[in-house]
Fold:
Amino acid sequence: RAAMLEYAAEHGQFMSQAPELVIDTEAPLSALTLAAVEQIERMAPFGQGNPRPLLCTTGVRLARPPRPIGNGGRHLAMELVQHGVSLRAIAFGASDWAEPLNHTPDAFDVAYRPMINEFAGRRSVELRLVDWRPGSIPAASPVQL
Structure:
């Protein structure tokens, strides 16, 4: 145990680095049409050797506060808005994001995997959020729906 602690102390700089996400491309929310995400779905089956593409969008805002869902509120559902386009997003196991997202005064950036949600015979684009960060670009005017 002492050897492990000594090793960790000597090499701690490697362990304290935040993991990096490898983003496939940046896309505005307006590009995520049903037809575009259907094209992505044609690359299936997704799995370890063929991961679902990871996209990012900068300068998004919340249309309203995120709400906890499922499994005792462990997940978050939210509506993201950018340049008048809004999309539903789900963050699995990320209930701890609710408070910081609610107190983000400016636009923020998101990393996600676009999916097609089929519910009650209706198909729509939905984003599976992987991560977010405070905005890297100046915020535009407040969101109005």
Summary: The mean pLDDT is 86. Strands lie at 25-26, 55-62, 67-69, 75-82, 85-91, 108-119, 122-134. The chain is about 20% helix and 35% strand. Helices lie at 2-15, 34-41, 98-102.
